[in-house]
Automatic annotation (TrEMBL):
GO terms for molecular function: ATP binding; ATP hydrolysis activity. It comes from the Bacteria. This is ABC transporter. InterPro entries: AAA+_ATPase, ABC_transporter-like_ATP-bd, ABC_transporter-like_CS, P-loop_NTPase. It holds the Pfam family ABC_tran.
Length: 307
């Protein structure tokens, strides 16, 4: 019942394909949705929460579709990235308004329980405008939890939150996962995801690029050969030298995109990206471009090692 299943989900805005044919399952426990800015994380989360219709494909909570299904909304809680618009409200009034919107039997009691759950009881009667960023995130979390959803979706919950509050928020999410909830949060920072997510789903350029625990994703990235496109002041000279370089499996010269370039298949990208500039410099060749040649796991790996 608490599994969220996405099948062939795409979403486009005019000509922009924000999410491209994503199929994945989110299970109980904490899952991290990792990807660089603009990867499509917010769009995916809005669709999973039933706030945005997929342009194609299907999202289900258990057996039930989430789009236009009031029953599914009762099981879903969303912590959006944007700030609370009504920050003149107290934390309590804000959370209670959500409880009333859900038509809960006892909105006051539900509000008190949600505020206690996120540790916001002492500050609950202050306006949200006086809260720190971390406290505002917790107020949004209380509002998302007030109807006790089984699935909790959080869009960049750690953005701008100071380290102490971040730890606090991480503990809260871990606890929610341990309670058997399905918790999914997005982030563009690997170490955040690594710290609390049992499962990591990587999205890059709208595509589902990798899935697994942190170790599995690392292995996936490093075990397979990667392809690079290299452009330089002397492609022919550089290509012949690259053939003798450790970790290089094949070298080809030819047309790539709008011009000539070297395409290199490497088995050890770490060694290759260190050795290439040295080799070029020793021969007086200028490297103009070094880029992964496709949009899939290579670029994810480049992204992962950069962050
Ligand atoms: N309402 C919209 N209209 C047009 N394009 C949009 C809209 N919302 C998102 N996009 C585009 O869709 C792509 C994915 O955006 P999205 O916000 O889902 O990514 P993201 O991974 O959440 O990024 P960020 O971390 O920067 O918020 C981007 O290219 C973005 O510019």
């Amino acid at each position: 019942m608490t599994d969220l299943t996405l099948t062939g989900v795409s979403r486009w805005y005019g000509n922009v394909v924000a999410v491209n044919d994503v199929t994945m399952s989110i299970r109980p426990g904490v899952t991290g949705l990792l990807g660089p800015n603009g990867a499509g994380k917010s769009t995916l989360i809005a669709m999973m929460a039933g706030f945005l219709a997929p342009s194609a494909g299907d999202i289900r909570l258990g057996e039930a579709p989430v789009w236009r299904n009031v029953g599914a909304y009762r099981d879903l809680g969303l912590v959006p990235e944007r700030e609370v618009s009504f920050s003149y409200l107290t934390g309590r009034a804000f959370v209670q308004a959500t409880a009333e919107l859900h038509r809960l039997a006892d909105p006051r009691a539900a509000t008190a329980r949600a505020l206690a759950e996120v540790d916001l009881v002492d500050a609950a009667d202050r306006p949200i405008s006086t809260f720190s960023k971390g406290m505002r995130q917790r107020a949004k979390l209380a509002s998302a939890l007030v109807h006790e959803p089984t699935v909790l979706l959080l869009d960049e919950p750690f953005n701008g939150v100071d380290p102490r509050q971040r730890m606090h928020l991480m503990e809260l999410l871990t606890r929610m996962g341990e309670q058997g909830r399905t918790v999914l949060f997005s982030s563009h920072i690997l170490e955040e995801v690594e710290q609390i997510a049992r499962q990591i789903e990587v999205v890059v350029s709208g595509r589902h690029a990798a899935s697994g625990d942190f170790g599995a994703i690392r292995r996936l990235m490093t075990d397979r050969p990667s392809h690079y496109v290299v452009r330089s002041s002397d492609d022919r000279g550089l290509a012949s030298m690259l053939m003798g370089l450790g970790g290089v499996r094949s070298v080809a010269l030819g047309r790539v995109g709008t011009g000539e370039a070297i395409t290199v298949e490497v088995t050890d990208m770490g060694e290759f990206t260190l050795a290439l500039p040295r080799l070029a410099r020793s021969a007086g060749i200028t490297v103009r471009e070094l880029a992964p040649s496709d949009e899939s796991l290579e670029s994810v790996f480049t992204y992962l090692v950069q962050s």
